[in-house]
Amino acid sequence: MGIFKKLKEYYWPNKHLFFWSLFMLLITLLITVAYPIILQQTIDRVIKGEQYDLAWKLAGIFMGLMIIKGIATYIGQYTGDMFGIRSVYELRNALYSKLQRLPFSYYDNAKTGDLMSRLTADVEGFRFFLSFGFVELFRLVFLVSVSLCVMFYYSVSLTFVSMAAMPLLVIAVLRFDKLVHPAFRDIRKSFGKLNTNVQENISGIHTVKSLSRESFQINKFNNSNGDYKDRYLFTTEIWAKYFPVMEFLGNISVVFLFGYGGFLVMDGQLSVGRLVAFYSLLGYIIFPIMNLGFTVNLFSQSKASGERLLEVLEAPEPIQSKVDAVDGSNMKGHVVFENVTLQYRKEDQLALDDVNLTVEAGKRVGLIGATGSGKTSLTQLLTRFYEPTIGTVKVDGIAVDEYSLTSLRSNIGFVLQESFLFSSSIKANISYGRPDATMEEIIDAAKRANAHEFIMELPDTYDTMLGERGLGLSGGQKQRIAIARALCQNPAILVLDDATSAVDMKTELHIQQALEEVMKGRTTFIIAHRISSVKHADELIVFEHGKIVQRGTHNQLINQQGLYKRIYEIQYKDQLENIYA
Ligand SMILES: Nc1ncnc2c1ncn2[C@@H]1O[C@H](COP(=O)(O)OP(=O)(O)OP(=O)(O)O)[C@@H](O)[C@H]1O
């Protein structure tokens, strides 16, 4: 029950609905137990006792009870369902906002498809139990105990005899639960993998198609699908094995009942009406206990789902704003990295190794070096996407972890190699970082990003809806929208991470012009592989294996023996070859 206790805050606020549904259930159950008593009265008093005038009365009572039961069932079902639906509404919201707060490091290991299945299938699994499972458990406990009381009242010895096989039935049900719970957990896990597979395939459809790997993907999916199917079959097998055993044990009880009960009737110790009522009452005990398998199924599924939901809800959030966080709205953009070392995981090499760097507000710094040398990592420390293992990063003399996260991040703009565009309008994409931007500001940003012209040629101009990830636009167009977005945000610090590497030379020229506009008056970090993209920077920082190995202006660095000159010569050689080719 630990899982249900931990998730209590989501369903307990709706407890009134739960209690209403229980109350209604109580009424229906009382009426259910009254049926066999009416039957007994009909047989013993009306038929055998020949009190025919009682028949009308009993029929009237029966009808009245049925109407009440119908109304109670309706209200009970409605409130029970409502309890589940409202609770998981809260839960889904909590999960979603948790996903917004989780750090980048969480997403490094998480799989999108798996997270999606937690937010959908697992939430549903949990709801199902809230709506039906609790109520089923209550039904079981109530029906068994009240039926037992009536049975004891009718005949103590017959109750004991017909209950003789019951412990075996309970043992079978418990064993079933023990096997079926891990099986359901595996099903959920397997479903998460299946989702991941589909999601990755759809996201990477370009790569799949361009490398003609469709059949590989189909096989991969087939494996996950097969695994999912096998796990389901496994639980079906458990169910198929245990269900006949449970039914057999239930039937044995009926045999005991009629064997010993028949003897009591013949001996005159029990009336026929009571024997018939006994049969119905025994059913009220056997069927819920056998149904316990189904309830246990529900319970196991929702427990497995609850576990997976808790894994997300309880994931640590190491990167948060402090209570007395500084508001960084008016940042100037003076950046200092002090003895910064970064190691992503304990087993990894150092991504940054004792980096010291000061960048004056409004200056442009070019970061250059081989892939994996630490350029991106450095800039990600600015926004606290990751925290340095050792050392401090300061903006305007204040450590970045002192700022409120929102104000820090809204003052640092990123234009990445491939910017993400949402499947909404161009207007909404540009103003994404500043939803209160006016239309004039949006258009101004687009103009300065060299994007206005092509936007105006689109059918619905700024209201044009984009496909997922900006589908329907060229790489250069997407990039200019991303630049407009950064401009609209008006950040003090800007990071251009390989912003022009995904486009051709002509488009690069367009984008470079746009970037010139963006960089004005902002501290800018330009990460680039092409020297041409960074050579006009105020200072160039050359990285190798997470360390700064050279720094200076382009002219200074090409006159020094070192990595920068080597990169320059390689790129320069390429250009010469291109010219004479
Ligand atoms: N999220 C991460 N988790 C673990 N290791 C990472 C992560 N991001 C980067 N690294 C590692 O840190 C090192 C530095 O990577 P980084 O991305 O900063 O290099 P880079 O110079 O920007 O490379 P590129 O030019 O290819 O973008 C690399 O060894 C990389 O594998």
TrEMBL record:
<dbReference type="GO" id="GO:0016887">
    <property type="term" value="F:ATP hydrolysis activity"/>
</dbReference>
<dbReference type="GO" id="GO:0005524">
    <property type="term" value="F:ATP binding"/>
</dbReference>
<dbReference type="InterPro" id="IPR039421">
    <property type="entry name" value="Type_1_exporter"/>
</dbReference>
<dbReference type="InterPro" id="IPR003439">
    <property type="entry name" value="ABC_transporter-like_ATP-bd"/>
</dbReference>
<dbReference type="GO" id="GO:0005886">
    <property type="term" value="C:plasma membrane"/>
</dbReference>
<keyword id="KW-1133">Transmembrane helix</keyword>
<feature type="domain" description="ABC transmembrane type-1">
    <location>
        <begin position="19"/>
        <end position="301"/>
    </location>
</feature>
<feature type="transmembrane region" description="Helical">
    <location>
        <begin position="278"/>
        <end position="299"/>
    </location>
</feature>
<keyword id="KW-0812">Transmembrane</keyword>
<dbReference type="InterPro" id="IPR036640">
    <property type="entry name" value="ABC1_TM_sf"/>
</dbReference>
<dbReference type="Pfam" id="PF00005">
    <property type="entry name" value="ABC_tran"/>
</dbReference>
<dbReference type="GO" id="GO:0015421">
    <property type="term" value="F:ABC-type oligopeptide transporter activity"/>
</dbReference>
<keyword id="KW-0067">ATP-binding</keyword>
<keyword id="KW-0547">Nucleotide-binding</keyword>
<dbReference type="Pfam" id="PF00664">
    <property type="entry name" value="ABC_membrane"/>
</dbReference>
<feature type="domain" description="ABC transporter">
    <location>
        <begin position="335"/>
        <end position="570"/>
    </location>
</feature>
<dbReference type="InterPro" id="IPR003593">
    <property type="entry name" value="AAA+_ATPase"/>
</dbReference>
<feature type="transmembrane region" description="Helical">
    <location>
        <begin position="126"/>
        <end position="146"/>
    </location>
</feature>
<feature type="transmembrane region" description="Helical">
    <location>
        <begin position="17"/>
        <end position="38"/>
    </location>
</feature>
<feature type="transmembrane region" description="Helical">
    <location>
        <begin position="248"/>
        <end position="266"/>
    </location>
</feature>
<keyword id="KW-0472">Membrane</keyword>
<dbReference type="InterPro" id="IPR011527">
    <property type="entry name" value="ABC1_TM_dom"/>
</dbReference>
<dbReference type="InterPro" id="IPR017871">
    <property type="entry name" value="ABC_transporter-like_CS"/>
</dbReference>
<feature type="transmembrane region" description="Helical">
    <location>
        <begin position="152"/>
        <end position="174"/>
    </location>
</feature>
<feature type="transmembrane region" description="Helical">
    <location>
        <begin position="58"/>
        <end position="76"/>
    </location>
</feature>
<protein>
    <submittedName>
        <fullName>ABC transporter ATP-binding protein/permease</fullName>
    </submittedName>
</protein>
<keyword id="KW-1003">Cell membrane</keyword>
<dbReference type="InterPro" id="IPR027417">
    <property type="entry name" value="P-loop_NTPase"/>
</dbReference>
<keyword id="KW-0813">Transport</keyword>
